[in-house]
UniProtKB/TrEMBL annotation, chain A:
The gene coding this protein: gsiA_8
Protein name in UniProt: Glutathione import ATP-binding protein GsiA
Matching PANTHER family: D,D-DIPEPTIDE TRANSPORT ATP-BINDING PROTEIN DDPD-RELATED, OLIGOPEPTIDE TRANSPORT ATP-BINDING PROTEIN APPD
Family, per entry: Belongs to the ABC transporter superfamily.
GO BP, sorted A to Z: peptide transport; transmembrane transport
InterPro entries named among the record's database cross-references: AAA+_ATPase, ABC_Ni/Peptide_Import, ABC_transporter-like_ATP-bd, ABC_transporter-like_CS, Oligopep_ABC_C, P-loop_NTPase
Species for this entry: Pelagimonas phthalicica
One example GO MF annotation: ATP binding
Enzyme Commission number(s): 3.6.3.-
Subcellular location as annotated: Cell inner membrane
UniProtKB/TrEMBL annotation, chain B:
Keyword Phosphoprotein listed: no
Protein name per Swiss-Prot or TrEMBL: Glutathione transport system permease protein GsiC
CDD domains cross-referenced by the UniProt entry: TM_PBP2
Membrane topology summary: Multi-pass membrane protein
Keywords: Cell membrane, Membrane, Transmembrane, Transmembrane helix, Transport
Any single GO CC term annotated in Swiss-Prot or TrEMBL for this entry: plasma membrane
Gene field: gsiC_5
GO biological process: transmembrane transport
Length: 565, 320
């Protein structure tokens, strides 16, 4: 008898016109102490399985067939009260985003003690002691002080540890971890995964690890189940599935994972299910105003750039405290290159992007674009010309498009703003742009919410290209996207650079991606640029200890190597 | 934290000074009170004498400073109409309005939050839909009409509650209260509902939409995933998170309950400052109008200061 057994599970969401099948006859078995990976793209039904086990399916979703059994007894047919007694008690769950899964208005102690008292028959004092022990166990230093702090006083990784402590309140038998490290930095991700692995072993807990990240699967899980559009396509021991995938979909999914070791010209895209993989970037090149700049004169010259943010305001100006986000950073970006910036969150990568683009005012230093100072925002004439030349692509394609504007209006806005074209010429340009990023002109009549993440990011790219810029700032352009979609977006960006001669500033925390996108890479730490080298040199011969450490944290994909090429 | 409070208090003082300027400017720009006070048969000498006695012959700035200084001491001058100190008149009238505002404010907040939570968690239930529909009526009918309808139903037809006045009041050393007698309490019910109905529906709709928003948050899902009882999820975790915007609106609305009590007081012949203000306008009794304006703005500013401090008490993220 297994710890958790899912047989033939089907979950349906009835809609007005038809029934949407989120999970179709899925089977899954978890043993005590085992970490079972559940992998697939967004929409594959991974999280729905997690919610079905917890009895937390969003209405009107329901289990129409199959059975979920915990230690041999069925739990899928239990009523709400019986399920509630199981939840957090015998089955716990960890959510993706530690920033939002803790209630911001209660201290960590209040949330822990409340959960402990709900499930265990102990006195308030014992609950208090247990809360302290749990924090200690998940590796939070100085638990006595930390207990009385609020979630916002913890860093992302520490918050996820608190979330894990909450999940452990009553010695659960099964933990469902739904993308537990997706929102975290690589270094922190490794620590959290280690913790989960340790706990699973130590307490003989069965863990279902839901993720879209093949690196996490390869590093952490014992067995893995691959899902595609609600169906389980393959299941088996991790090494076997990753090293020698049988199903066509698993093969193409694994091939799409960027390899840290070998640079390749293009990112392999998932073609399974007849997906579009080619875009007409060459078409844009035909009427693109090319400027043959001298490749040895920097396009962007950043000198001694600094930025600090107000941390605590005081009535006496001298007593206010500041946080230095960017500290005396200098570098050049040459025409036609892809310049990468890597670093953990909070290292100042994004702030640099915002300083160059003029979204933040610089506190010190200057930025030159083609030899002209552009960091002085009061020079309106220079700014107007400069802003047409640079455009930005943001991380989150969901919040970077105005939901109340139609897609064609969104793309036409920069054209109108810079008065580049007028009348029907705008319409033609917008239609062309949409066509070129593979959306089709009719996409212009829809609103952003009608598109998926990858499609939205392509709309963002079309918007960025609308003014025919020379310089594109990409701030984590793919970290909110699935691996398969990531390849698509990265290939488009690569084409833009190759065919249009665009210069890119590419900010990312994903080292394998950076390796394949960029010609030179800078490493940021605590607002300072600690290293700047040509990409291959940086990966082969890192100069600083910090870079070495970052490189060592890249997911171990040895097993993937053989199958990928 | 301390610097935050000091800054807020300084801002409040600035606001009050500006309102004071507006209130004071009325003396100069809204006609000559001398004309009103002295009849047709007057000599230039009478005019000059009165002008000097009222201090109206001095420069604008001097008059303003004097006005502020005496206002600080609670002296708003003498009513043109009644010939008594304005502060004294206000002190007689204010308790009636404040008690009415307090009762209707508590009614609006209490009923608004309870109904808001109810309509949010039973979003598709029949009762919740009914409440939402009826609340639309509450928003769209003007206050005086609701007052008249309530009087017609409960006073004229059913004869349960009095239709005007405060009933019997008890004098507690300068503060007259209707809380201590049955007739005083009965007299409070209809005007309090009339005055608070609009605010109640507004708060209810706000709490409802905030609750629906908060119930979608991850921490609510996580609270459920930890097996916490539904009661704790809804009233502990969710409700507290809806409070910051609700307090903002409730604070502003409480201010307007006091300020706009005028209509309700007129309908119910409630002897409060609103009624006083209406009479003052009819008589161009500028000292009374100015004092009323100052009183209302002190309350608005005071309530807003309180709201800002409540934010900090509720949301630890604002404390740093």
């Amino acid at each position: 008898m297994s710890l958790l057994e899912i047989k033939d599970l089907t979950v349906e969401f009835p809609t007005r016109r038809q029934r949407f099948v989120a999970v179709a006859s899925a089977d899954l078995v978890v043993e005590p102490g085992e970490i079972h990976g559940l992998v697939g793209e967004s929409g594959a039904g991974k999280s729905t399985i997690g919610a079905a086990i917890m009895g937390l399916l969003e209405a009107p979703g329901r289990i129409t067939e199959g059975e979920i059994a915990l230690n041999g007894s069925a739990i899928s047919g239990l009523d709400q009260d019986a399920m509630r007694a199981l939840r957090g008690n015998r089955i716990s769950m960890i959510f993706q985003d530690p920033l939002t899964s803790l209630n911001p208005l209660f201290t960590v102690r209040q949330q822990l003690v409340e959960t402990i008292l709900t499930h265990l028959d102990v006195s308030g004092e014992e609950a208090d002691q247990r809360a302290r022990d749990l924090l200690d166990r998940v590796g939070i230093p100085d638990p006595d002080t930390r207990l009385d702090q609020y979630p916002h006083q913890f860093s992302g990784g520490m918050r996820q540890r608190v979330v894990i402590a909450l999940a452990l309140c009553s010695e659960p038998e099964v933990i469902i971890a739904d993308e537990p490290t997706t929102a975290l930095d690589v270094a922190v991700q490794a620590q959290i995964l280690d913790l989960i692995r340790e706990l699973a072993e130590e307490r003989q807990v069965g863990v279902i690890l839901i993720t879209h990240d093949m690196g996490v699967i390869a590093d952490t899980t014992d067995r893995v189940t691959v899902m595609y559009q609600g169906e389980v396509v393959e299941t088996g021991p991790t090494d076997q599935v990753i090293g020698d995938p049988q199903h066509l979909y698993s093969q193409s999914l694994i091939a799409a994972v960027p390899r840290p070791n070998e640079p390749r010209h293009r990112f392999p895209q998932i073609s399974y299910g007849g997906r579009q993989t080619r875009f007409a970037i060459e078409d844009i090149a035909r009427n693109w105003p090319r400027q043959d700049a001298d490749p040895d004169t920097p396009l962007i010259k950043v000198q001694n750039l600094s930025k600090r943010f107000l941390e605590k305001r005081s009535l006496i100006p001298g007593k206010s405290t500041y946080f230095t986000a960017v500290d005396d950073v200098s570098f050049d970006i040459f025409p036609g290159e892809v310049f990468g910036i890597v670093g953990e969150s909070g290292s100042g990568k994004s702030t640099i992007a915002r300083l160059i683009s003029g979204l933040h005012r610089v506190d010190g230093g200057v930025v030159h674009f083609r030899g002209q100072e552009v960091s002085d925002l009061s020079n309106k004439a220079v700014q107007a010309a400069f802003r047409q030349e640079i455009q930005m692509i943001f991380q989150d394609p969901f919040s970077s498009l105005n939901p109340r504007m139609r897609v064609d209006q969104i793309i036409a806005e920069p054209i109108h703003h810079h008065r580049l074209l007028s009348g029907s010429a705008v319409k033609t340009r917008v239609a062309e742009l949409l066509e070129q990023v593979g959306m089709g002109a009719e996409a212009g009549f829809k609103y952003p919410h009608e598109f998926s993440g990858g499609q939205r990011q392509r709309i963002c790219i079309a918007r960025a290209l609308a003014t025919q810029p020379q310089f594109l700032i990409c701030d984590e352009p793919t970290s909110a996207l699935d691996v398969s979609i990531q390849a698509q977006i990265l290939n488009i960006l690569k084409d833009l650079q190759e065919h249009l001669g665009l210069t890119l500033l590419f900010i990312s925390h994903d080292l394998p991606v950076v390796r394949q996108m960029c010609s030179r890479v800078a490493v940021m730490k605590n607002g300072q640029m600690v290293e700047l080298q040509a990409t291959e040199d940086l990966f082969a011969r890192p100069k600083t200890e910090y870079t070495r450490e970052l490189l060592s944290l890249m997911p171990r994909l040895d097993a993937l190597q053989s199958s990928g090429s | 934290m301390l610097s935050y409070i000091i800054r807020r208090v300084l801002q409040s003082v600035l606001v009050l000074l500006i309102v004071g300027l507006v209130a004071f400017a009325m003396f100069t720009f809204m006609g000559d009170p001398i004309d009103n006070m002295l009849g047709q048969e007057r000599t230039q000498e009478d005019v000059d004498r009165l002008r000097a006695r009222l201090g109206l012959d001095q420069p604008f700035v001097v008059q303003y400073v004097k006005f502020i200084l005496s206002a600080l001491q609670g002296n708003f001058g003498v009513s043109y109409e009644q010939g008594r100190p304005v502060a004294q008149i206000l002190a007689e009238r204010a308790p009636a309005t404040l008690e009415l505002a307090l009762v209707s404010g508590v009614f609006a907040l209490g009923a608004g939050i309870v109904l808001g939570v109810f309509t949010a968690i039973r979003r598709n239930g029949f009762m919740a839909q009914m409440v939402m529909t009826i609340s639309l009526v509450g928003v769209s009918l003007p206050t005086f009409l609701i007052g008249i309808l309530l009087i017609y139903l409960f006073s004229v037809e059913l004869d349960w509650l009095p239709s005007f006045g405060r009933g019997e009041v008890v004098d507690l050393g300068g503060w007259t209260t209707g809380f201590l007698t049955t007739s005083g309490l009965r007299a409070l019910i209809l005007p309090a509902i009339t005055l608070g109905l609009y605010q109640m529906t507004l708060i209810m709709r706000l709490v409802r939409s905030q609750m629906l928003e908060v119930l979608r948050q991850d921490y609510v899902r996580f609270a459920r995933a930890r097996g916490l009882p539904e009661r704790a999820v809804l009233f502990r975790h969710a409700l507290k998170n809806t409070m910051v915007p609700v307090i903002t609106v409730a604070g502003l609305q409480l201010g307007s309950i006091i300020a706009f009590a005028i209509i309700t007081e007129t309908v119910f012949q409630w002897p409060g400052v609103g009624l006083l203000f209406i009479n003052a306008i009819q008589f161009v009794d500028i000292p009374v109008m100015a004092a009323y304006l100052m009183l209302i703005s002190v309350m608005f500013v005071g309530i807003n200061l309180l709201v800002d401090l409540l934010y900090v008490a509720i949301d630890p993220r604002l404390r740093t």
